[in-house]
Amino acid sequence: MQGEHHCPLPNLQPSGIKNDMKPAQTITLRIVNTLGLHARSAAQLAKVAGRAKGGVWIQKNGDRADATSLLDILTLACPQGTEITVSIDDEADLETLERMAELIRSGFGE
Amino acid sequence: MEDQESQEIILNGIGGSPGICIGKAYLVDKEGVDVVKKYIVRESFLSAEVGRFKTAVKKARESLRQIIDNTPEELRQHAQILETHMLLFKDKMLYDRTIEVIEKERVNAEWALKKVVSLVKPMFENMTNDYLKQRAEDITHVADRIMENLVGGDHVNIARIDKRVILVARDLSPAETSQIQLERIKGFVTNRGGRASHTSIIARTLEIPAVLGVGNATLKINNDDIIIVDGGAGTVVVNPTEQTLLATEERRGQYEIHKALMVRNSYLPAETKNGQRISVMGNIELPEEVVSLLDHGGDGIGLYRTEFQYLSRPDFPSENSLFENYKDVIDVMGHRPVTIRTLDINGDKAVNYIRDNQEPNPALGLRAIRYCLRKPDIFQTQLRAILRAAAYGNVRILLPLISGIEEVEQAFEQIDEAAETLEKQGVVYKRDIPVGVMIEVPSAAVTADILAEKADFFSIGTNDLIQYTLAIDRGNRHVAHLHQPLHPAILRLIKGTCDAAKANGIPTYMCGEMAAEPIFAPILLGLGVNELSMNPQTIPVVKNAIRSIDTTGIDGFMEEMMRLTTPNAIQDLLAHQFGSVVPRIGLSEQER
């Protein structure tokens, strides 16, 4: 990892993929479960995001967290009702994006 | 005086446990892991250093996985937080960043980890949301586990200290104190804590000198400094001169002689000059302390704290292991009473694996009887173990932190249920034993007349009673001096409790620190407390004091005292009337 921790890891980028600034896909959602993004729900997201090929991000009010890091997600402090945007760098990770969105929409099964 | 190579410094604190010791200082870092050393790693060894870190993480994860797997099914929800810890081990903010620091700054893995943790933790500690704030604890836990594996063999963990040293720490949590092999420790010095803090109680129980609430001990004292701890005077001398060392040795000798004299008389009964008798019992936490209790002339166990068996292991203890523990104690005590207090966890004794219920104010939270009534499976396990052990001796059950009659009724139902289960299983047990209520919450003292109808005895826990009544955190050195047993409010609560007990024909015992101060003995006799319980080492001192008291006409003295309005006035009257009969070792040792 280089510089600040929000930068994607260069060695995690598959060769041949352009690292343009625009994320490939984004979904904006609202946190519905009562507890918000607490340790258990954030852990579920980080687990799913961890399987992605490229970078996966969660944005809230301009702050961006690495979705593969449970701690980073927690630092965003997202209680119930927060609007967040999930984005992926690599189109190959569309499935990851969809699964994360599903988790958030379903309130993490709480 | 000529210059010494190092300057003698005297630090003042609160005397936590009497006695004098001289030895080498051993500094313990805040999280119970030792002070981390920083060193530069050569370029060619950097990848090996990263490898060392990765191995440590791997080992830490494996051992945590084992703990999770060994957690019984019904307690799995407690293990949930440990699952989160599993994930944190490899979290980029910890794992990747530590590797990055090792490589970029060319430092050892321990230092890199410590640095990363000290950067990440404040991000959480500074949050406004309480839940997220407490995630800083999780980071500490995970980092500690990795650190333990990193420092490995040559590292002297707090649990594995094998030299006779004096521990110097910012603070020691009960969990940490329970890890220390105390026979290896000569004394304690801590920045925080007061006379009634857990560390102080443990130190007194094990007769280890301790000075607490020093404030800056960990800054002023370096590892391996020669220090003198005087637990009676509450002072720590760093780098003492030769004269100081000689004078200290002499005082230490006098103290030992004085103590030996006391102990020699400890087998005599605690009977006042005019023939009033009182039982003097011991408080214990570890089964091993029973020997010391009997050596010091204890008439029984007035308080057996049962948390230790829960603190010293990764999961909840089984009924059988609890039973064996209790029976060991009962076997040694024979016909003497053994008062087993049911589990008093959370509050200041947080058990590691139930840490996920972080509370902003644990002293007022889900602890003791409240916790047990909420977790009947855990309570039942302990109650069955107690009732089984009760068949072998003279056992009483003591219910902690009772605040109202409903809790007593529910606890009695639980005890009956445990007995029924044992009956069905055809196991040997005894239900017909005294069940008492601990009076430590002001509401319990105020409603003692109601509780007395149900309880078989009362036991006044003065530490918490004073803390809750006067709103004083006994561990906070800024207010520790306001922890006043002689406050009129406290005396009234104790009197009300004793009166209610007498009216209902049940006895009142006392197991708090107040019982251990010989100067208070006349008051407690005057109020009609039937039994005092204290750390075993104090038994001879208190017995000695009681034997020198004459309680003839004490009712008049009590009436006068109850009319006084301030702790100071009460103290003066007490000193005036009974000061001469109380040995000088009592309240302040600096007079010696």
TrEMBL record, chain B:
It catalyses: L-histidyl-[protein] + phosphoenolpyruvate = N(pros)-phospho-L-histidyl-[protein] + pyruvate. Its EC number is 2.7.3.9. Residues 12-135 form the Phosphotransferase system enzyme I N-terminal domain. Its cofactor is Mg(2+). GO terms for molecular function: kinase activity; metal ion binding; phosphoenolpyruvate-protein phosphotransferase activity. GO terms for cellular component: cytoplasm. General (non sugar-specific) component of the phosphoenolpyruvate-dependent sugar phosphotransferase system (sugar PTS). This major carbohydrate active-transport system catalyzes the phosphorylation of incoming sugar substrates concomitantly with their translocation across the cell membrane. Enzyme I transfers the phosphoryl group from phosphoenolpyruvate (PEP) to the phosphoryl carrier protein (HPr). This is Phosphoenolpyruvate-protein phosphotransferase.
